Amino acid sequence: MRRALPALVIVFAAGLALFWWITAPGTVPPDKFAGLTGDRTRGEQVFWAAGCASCHAAENASGDDKLKLGGGQRFPSDFGTFRAPNISPDPRVGIGGWSVIELANAMMRGVSPEGAHYYPAFPYTSYANAAPQDVVDLKTFLDTLPPVATPSEAHELSFPFTIRRLLGGWKFLFANKGWVMEGDLTPELMRGRYLVEALGHCGECHTPRNALGGARRDAWLGGAPNPGGQGTIPNITPARLTWSAQDIAYYLETGFTPEFDTAGGHMAPVIENLAKLPAEDRAAIAAYLKAVPPVE
Fold first, then answer.
1. Which residues pair with 111 in a beta bridge?
2. Cα torsion through 80, 86, 87, 90, rounded to 10
3. Which residue(s) pair with 156 in the sheet?
4. What residues have CB less than 8 Å from 196, skipping those under 6 apart?
5. At what angle do helices 40-50 and 267-274 cross, to 10 degrees?
6. pTM reported for the whole predicted model
7. Residue ranges of the Cytochrome c domain (predicted)?
């Protein structure tokens, strides 16, 4: 046993070093953002496409109150309840003091300015494909919004989900996987892919997940249980969503379905956001949804 002890120590130390390396927070290359300047108007379009107000404004906020991003909404899941943080430009409890790179690390890598992992309730696995210019434009727009002095509330999680370092292993398995739809795409399909897979993060809700909470890309947009425990989130691939592209685009603008029903639940604020985008963007989303592989 005494002879085996040094070897066991070496194996343990090597395993610990490998774990520490795999779970280390990764950051974006700063040179990706060098020389970029932000535009408020473009940033507002990114803001609505990314659905920032849907999570970070107060629940049921409307009108100008949707631009007060003090957080606080609760999002239940199998792992606990997550609370949306304050992302207003308040310099003390919001993100007013963040740099563009710090926002990019949060959005695209799920890493805080302090170097801690964020929980993937924040859809950074989708935002990872965001264009650097869009992040810069979004920061410019966010900086013009009203500061909210409400401190962020803590998530309601139990052990071991309180150990953020473990999220590095989750990211190693499930994050930064690139685009789902590959191939020689038209400009319209590329725009639709960008809006659906990146900024719009549609797959975060409409794609089923495995036991560890990773998106099942083999069933992309194939529908999923509602994390809140009531009902399901629908399959929006051509296997179930049989509307025409024109019907889909109209629904994304108005919330009215071809069956004379209206969008409700969490989809209602999504429609409000998408209605603020150019018609070409909604048409691109519709074209993507007609082209994505069907999931039975």
1. 117
2. -160
3. 81
4. 202, 203, 221, 285, 288, 289, 292
5. 160
6. 0.90
7. 38-146, 187-293
Q: Name which of 82, 217, 73, 107 is nearest 162 in CA terms.
A: 82
CA atoms within 13 A on the CB side of 136: 13
Check whether 211 has a pLDDT greater than 70. Answer: yes
> Using CA atoms, how far apart are residues 78 and 224, in angstroms rounded to an integer?
13
The pair of three-digit structure tokens given for residue 168, joined into one six-digit string: 């590095």
* Beta bridge partners of residue 209, listed in sequence order: 215
* Tens digit of each residue's pLDDT (9 = 90 or more) over 95-117: 999 999 999 999 999 999 999 99
Hey, which residues does 82 pair with through a beta bridge?
75
Radius of gyration in angstroms for the set of CA atoms belonging to the chain, rounded to a whole number? 20
Element (H, E) at 47: helix 40-50
Contacting residues for 248 by C-beta, under 8 A, at least 6 apart: 241, 285, 286, 289, 290
Token representation of residue 17: 């070093």
Retrieve residue 210's tokens. Answer: 């495995």
Give the Cα separation of 11 and 16 in Å (integer): 9
**Tokens 């590095």 found at:** 168
